[in-house]
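Subject: Response regulator transcription factor structure
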Amino acid sequence: MTTTAFPIALAIVEDDARVRDLLHEYLGHQAEFTCSIVVDSVEALWTELDLSLPPRVLLLDVSLPGQSGIEALPALKKRLPEADIILQTMHDDPDRIYQALRAGATGYVIKNATSLPQYKQAILDVLGGGAALSPSVARKALQHFQPAPSQQPALLSAREQEVLHLLVDGLAEKQIAARLALSPDTVHTYVKRLYDKLRVRSRSELLSRALKGDL
């Protein structure tokens, strides 16, 4: 895993001035971050990207005036392929979450259920290789992996289920290894096996398919 060099450049795209100012004030005073871009729309973000240090992490509101955060995701991922993008919204609507993760978002947080310290931790989680999901979002994903009693034998072993649940909870492979008292190489093997069995190629695809219920 690549070591992150702090402070990292952070972009905040939020049209609610109160939320935007709170995030800017709090995150901008954390030693790990520098808020290189703070704007109220995707259109303003594009302008700032030509003038400012490219952000390593973007906090992107879903419901914005003009182009929405979800609509902007594909173009932003193309422009900033190394950046992690965390979507934020007031609602945990499964269809929106699915669209966001399918389009390449690394996280999805619910604004009114996420404290400022939790925002900081969400950013650190994605920088560490994990995913940033509010608890209600993670629960919606996990529900799709719970087999009914009458179903045929489970596709995944008990240990694979454990690893899967921790992935959906947002843990990085190194954190999963520590939680389950396994070596990082063993966890990596389980993750590769999960991707093969579930026919996915990335964590975002795994989560988006779980939320859509098509695994």
